[in-house]
């Protein structure tokens, strides 16, 4: 996929972005090959490049004032961008009307060295001349400490250090340092490389190291993609989604973040601006399901390890409620605060760091943990010691699920001012009991199997009585309620009802009637703490596709899936939300949930390889 854009003066921020990374850090690159987002030394730290959410443009200039790293071709009229096939390496070809052109290759090094993964908190930008005598201007304006400019800038023979109170960033390059620091244009008469990252000296020749890192990183990604289990159809789409999902994994601990950004609003002017650079337990089942289907067992096992460590810590703490989200290292704070000095994405404030949802009661988490951990007991590819011990800890999750299945909570959409007994939370509590019965069976624990099977049956009877609305003729989103929400589309997938159960079919039809807006879906059509929904939540559209397929409307599901794929940006990526009319992407980016939904739907809809030819 190749995309192009012209240089047409000042432009506003956009989510038409590519992503690069190495499972330690990641960065977002816009349609002019500018790095506009990137946190160091890991996803959840301060954004060193923050122009995406602080995009005030200097008077008469298309260049953001700060938080950006650009390599600008003087006189550029065209920028064509594409990923190198089956990699996370982005190529940007910049050209002008005089026959001058350069290529920028952007990547974060990732490969095996000394029998372990080498994934430094470092980005590499490699520039080469394609034609003519091109001249470039390098502008690097990192921020250190939530949008603050460096306290000091120092330089050496081949490096520049940007010094702040919290951290120091180092740029190492074989380009003329004075030209880089002063923003003076210079000719690209040979390849140049730029290493930006932690304050560590590069102890090797720059050009040679750049070539080596590029070659080995290319080989890594192509080898990783070669190992994927892919559907016959939608292969390019699934490969890009799988790479993006991998880039959202923090390999050190196994955590997978919901997205790489903070405070991209779900819709303009709504103040639904949240920090998504953390790990939500709710995502666990869907993420593990996608990873399993892709065959990425190492990433899946690392993620399950992260979940298991959460179970260990929770059990030891004696806490009464399981937090719905965690930092990617499980330490530190998730305290939410605003940064008013940052202007916000397209001026939309507030800009938030941390996430107050961590203190909410969300009762679906117990089921999410058990559902994810169930893979450890059935997937023979995984090396999971201590299964009996883990089962004992999961039973603690199940007992809490029994206690709270009919209690009010903030629900799957994290309402901040309203509580109710949410159907999805209750069904997830049932799922915890149901899966514990299955786990007990595989462990030969007949007594515990009978216990959990009995509890699952008891919960199911209560839940069905409360969430079936006879007058409406469909399932509803809260106990005794009358409204719909999109999580009801998951009832069959979770195994609570069969897909051909008339109650589920009627609910899918009702959601199609009341929550669809064109090809997109609302999470719900009722008013919440911030008003009504103005964008479609993309994962819900994929859930609807899956539900249509499950109830037998397969051609309709496949056609809808094809139209939803057109909502992806120029690089094949998705955010959280899309405008109901224009389709413009909103919400944090790239959104793990959306890409997981895409993968799972593609796997369901594709012909299998045996049928293909």
UniProtKB/TrEMBL annotation:
<feature type="domain" description="GH15-like">
    <location>
        <begin position="237"/>
        <end position="601"/>
    </location>
</feature>
<dbReference type="Pfam" id="PF19291">
    <property type="entry name" value="TREH_N"/>
</dbReference>
<protein>
    <submittedName>
        <fullName>Glucoamylase</fullName>
    </submittedName>
</protein>
<dbReference type="InterPro" id="IPR011613">
    <property type="entry name" value="GH15-like"/>
</dbReference>
<dbReference type="InterPro" id="IPR008928">
    <property type="entry name" value="6-hairpin_glycosidase_sf"/>
</dbReference>
<dbReference type="InterPro" id="IPR045582">
    <property type="entry name" value="Trehalase-like_N"/>
</dbReference>
<dbReference type="GO" id="GO:0004553">
    <property type="term" value="F:hydrolase activity, hydrolyzing O-glycosyl compounds"/>
</dbReference>
<dbReference type="Pfam" id="PF00723">
    <property type="entry name" value="Glyco_hydro_15"/>
</dbReference>
<dbReference type="InterPro" id="IPR012341">
    <property type="entry name" value="6hp_glycosidase-like_sf"/>
</dbReference>
<dbReference type="GO" id="GO:0005975">
    <property type="term" value="P:carbohydrate metabolic process"/>
</dbReference>
<feature type="domain" description="Trehalase-like N-terminal">
    <location>
        <begin position="17"/>
        <end position="173"/>
    </location>
</feature>
């Amino acid at each position: 996929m190749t995309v192009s854009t012209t240089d047409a003066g000042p432009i506003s921020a956009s989510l038409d972005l590519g992503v690069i990374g190495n499972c330690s850090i990641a960065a977002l690159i816009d349609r002019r090959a500018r790095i506009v987002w990137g946190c160091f030394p890991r996803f959840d730290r301060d954004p060193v490049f923050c122009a995406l959410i602080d995009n005030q443009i200097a008077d008469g200039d298309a260049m953001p004032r700060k938080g950006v790293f650009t390599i600008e071709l003087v006189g550029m009229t065209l920028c064509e961008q594409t990923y190198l096939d089956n990699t996370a390496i982005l190529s940007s070809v910049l050209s002008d009307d005089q026959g001058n052109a350069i290529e920028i290759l952007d990547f974060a090094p990732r490969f095996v060295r000394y029998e372990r993964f080498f994934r430094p908190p470092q980005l590499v930008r490699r520039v080469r001349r394609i034609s003519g005598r091109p001249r470039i201007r390098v502008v690097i304006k990192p921020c250190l400490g939530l949008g603050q400019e460096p306290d000091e800038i120092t330089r050496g023979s081949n490096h520049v250090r940007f010094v702040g109170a919290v951290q120091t960033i180092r740029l190492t390059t074989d380009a003329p340092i004075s030209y880089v620091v002063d923003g003076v244009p210079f000719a690209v008469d040979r390849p140049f490389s730029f290493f930006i990252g932690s304050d560590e000296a590069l102890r090797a020749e720059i050009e040679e190291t750049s070539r080596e890192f590029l070659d080995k990183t290319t080989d890594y990604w192509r080898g990783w993609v070669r190992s994927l289990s892919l559907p016959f159809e939608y292969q390019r789409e699934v490969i890009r989604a799988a790479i993006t999902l991998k880039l959202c994994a923090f390999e050190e601990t196994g955590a997978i973040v919901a997205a790489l950004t903070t405070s991209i609003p779900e819709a303009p002017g709504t103040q639904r601006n949240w920090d998504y650079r953390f790990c939500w337990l709710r995502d666990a089942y869907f993420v593990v399901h996608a990873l399993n289907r892709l065959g990425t067992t190492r990433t899946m096992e690392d993620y399950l390890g992260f979940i298991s460590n959460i179970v260990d810590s929770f059990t030891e703490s004696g806490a009464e409620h399981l937090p719905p989200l965690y930092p990617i290292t499980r330490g530190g704070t998730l305290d939410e605060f605003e940064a008013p000095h940052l202007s916000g994405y397209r001026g939309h404030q507030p800009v938030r760091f941390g996430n107050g949802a961590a203190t909410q009661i969300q009762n679906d988490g117990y089921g999410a943990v058990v559902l994810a951990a169930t893979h450890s007991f059935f997937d023979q590819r995984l090396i999971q010691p201590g299964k009996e011990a883990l089962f004992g800890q999961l039973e603690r999750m199940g007992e809490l699920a029994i206690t709270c299945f009919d209690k009010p909570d903030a629900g799957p959409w994290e309402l901040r001012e309203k509580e109710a007994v949410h159907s999805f939370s209750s069904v997830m509590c049932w799922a915890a009991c149901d899966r514990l019965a299955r786990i007990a069976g595989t462990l030969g624990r007949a007594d515990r199997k009978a216990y959990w099977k009995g509890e699952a049956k008891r919960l199911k009877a209560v839940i069905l009585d409360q969430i079936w609305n006879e007058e409406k003729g469909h399932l509803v989103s809260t106990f005794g309620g009358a409204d719909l929400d999109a999580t009801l589309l998951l009832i069959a997938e979770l195994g609570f009802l069969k897909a051909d159960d008339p109650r589920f079919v009627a609910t899918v039809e009702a959601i199609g009637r009341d929550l669809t807006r064109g090809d997109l879906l609302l999470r719900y059509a009722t008013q919440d703490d911030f008003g009504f929904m103005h964008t479609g939540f993309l994962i819900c559209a994929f859930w609807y596709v899956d539900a249509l397929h499950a109830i037998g409307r397969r051609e309709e599901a496949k056609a809808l899936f094809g139209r939803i794929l057109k909502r992806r940006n120029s690089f094949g990526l998705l955010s959280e939300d899309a405008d109901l009319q224009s389709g413009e992407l909103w919400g944090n980016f790239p959104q793990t949930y959306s890409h997981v939904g895409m993968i799972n739907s593609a796997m369901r809809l594709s012909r299998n390889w045996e049928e293909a030819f």
